[in-house]
Amino acid sequence: MADDTSGVRPLSPHLQIYRWQVPMLTSILTRITGNALIVSALLWVWWLLAAATSPEAFATADGFLTSWFGDLVMTLSVLGLWYHYLAGLRHLIYDAGRGLDIPTAEKLGWACIIGSVVLTVLTLIIV
User: pTM for the full model?
Assistant: First the structure.
């Protein structure tokens, strides 16, 4: 019979033993930004519904979205939108079978991070 050593070692590796790498970080950030974009979309829907409902409801929603906190949330939403877009392009490159080696994956990860910051700044300057 096989030697059962499952009680001696963990069944699967945990985050504590992994060395953080850029592709790992970008994968996690893609999931975070995807969920954050859902929240920002709900805020936009709230603003539009409030505009269609009554002046008081619109004043409340508009007051929130134009406050310093609303500006921060919307700025981070723009950052998340650009990041999620660039990460999607990176995954299209991966799906084509390119960029899967570690050095290229690291460069593509940094391109997503730096590119999203640059595009966010450009968007805020233009808009």
Answer: 0.81
Counting the structural domains of the chain, the total is 1
Contact 110/22 with Cβ under 8 angstroms? Answer: yes
Q: What is the 3-state secondary structure (H, E, C) of 48-95?
A: HHHHHHCHHHHHHHHHHHCCHHHHHHHHHHHHHHHHHHHHHHHHHHHH
| pLDDT tens, per residue, the chain with 127 residues | 556 655 666 666 666 677 778 988 999 999 999 999 999 999 999 999 999 999 999 999 999 999 999 999 999 999 999 999 999 999 999 999 999 999 999 999 999 999 999 999 999 999 8
Give the CATH number for residue 36: 1.20.1300.10
Provide the angle, in degrees to the nearest 10, between the axes of the packed helices 68-95 and 102-126.
140
Residue for token pair 């007051």: 63
